[in-house]
Design brief:
Elements (H helix, E strand, L loop, with lengths): L15 H8 L54 H17 L1 H11 L3 E6 L2 E4 L6 H27 L6 H23 L3 H10 L5 E4 L6 E6 L3 E6 L3 H15 L45
Antiparallel strand pairs: 1-2, 1-3, 4-5
Helix pairs in contact: 2-5, 3-4, 3-5, 4-5, 4-7, 5-7
Length: about 290
């Protein structure tokens, strides 16, 4: 061999280590620097276009990069949604009439005795006013829950802030109507006896609220308080819980994926390349360059 050509197996020559590294096989059982990664990350499909969804119940239906499915029913125009909400408020307020009649029938009247200055309780500490407040609270709270459930299932297309507005203000209007209807049952006879009955005569006072009502601030601003607000409170809590437990982000039933929509990729998006398999143990690495 001439002096101009260096021997490949001599370690003192400049090309010897590189030549040995390219020809030697990799160590058995361990990867080398030139081996590809055994796992390759796949990119998410681009947004837009016809995107299909994962099967329901997998917990991956709304993964990052995938749009939410649209509701099965189209959105109502804002004006129509507001009209439906106002109609629901009016209907719930009208239901306060039977609620007040039921309250007057269940709550006991308070016995009173006529005195020169008016009427006083026949007992030092009567329980009838407390019972009247208790019956109104129980009936009003249950009424608010039922109204919230009815609006949630009947007005599915206005679920959300508009439905909550209808439930709260409708039940508050019903509470006002029920209070006035209940307290006026027998009120005319009570006022007549209060004026014409002789002193010492016993009669009954119709039901009324002592733990709730309306206070007038500066004589012009009405401020409700007490158990008069319980129906609206029950409706607000029930409607909020229904919204929090809803399985759909739009609070309305959404389109379920069909049999053709059970893949992750879109119809026009090619599938990401599969990760290359690692070389078998003892196989030589591909040459470089």
């Amino acid at each position: 061999m001439s002096a101009d050509t260096p021997e490949p197996d001599r370690p003192d020559e400049p090309g010897a280590p590189a030549a040995r590294a390219e020809t030697d096989p990799p160590a058995r059982g361990g990867p080398t620097e030139r081996e590809p990664a055994p796992y390759a990350a796949t990119a998410a499909p681009p947004l837009g276009g016809a995107v299909e969804y994962a099967p329901g119940g997998t917990g991956l239906e709304y993964a990052a990069g995938y749009p939410f499915p649209s509701p099965a029913e189209p959105d109502l125009p804002r004006g129509r949604a507001v009209r439906l909400a106002l109609l629901a408020v009016l209907a719930a307020s009208v239901l306060g009439v039977p609620l007040g009649l039921l309250w007057a029938a269940l709550a006991p009247d308070t016995p009173v005795v006529k005195v020169p200055d008016g009427a006083i309780y026949a007992e030092p500490q009567p329980e009838q006013p407390i019972a009247a407040d208790g019956w109104f609270s129980l009936l009003g709270l249950g009424f608010g829950v039922l109204v919230a459930l009815a609006l949630w299932f009947l007005l599915r297309r206005v679920r959300g802030p508009v439905g909550l507005f209808a439930a709260v203000f409708g039940t508050f209007g019903a509470a006002l109507v029920a209070w006035q209807v209940g307290r006026r049952m027998g009120l005319a006879d009570y006022e007549r006896l209060l004026e014409s009955a002789p002193v010492g005569q016993a009669f009954s006072k119709p039901v009324d609220l002592r733990a709730g009502g309306i206070d007038w601030v500066l004589g012009v601003l009405p401020v409700p308080h007490g158990n008069l607000l319980l129906p609206a409170f029950g409706a607000a809590v029930t409607y909020t819980l229904l919204a929090g437990w809803s399985r759909w982000p739009s609070l309305r039933p959404e389109r379920e994926p069909g049999p053709a929509e059970l893949s992750w990729g879109s119809a026009g998006t090619p599938a990401p390349p599969a990760a290359p398999e690692p070389p078998a143990p003892g196989a030589a690495a591909p040459p470089h360059g």
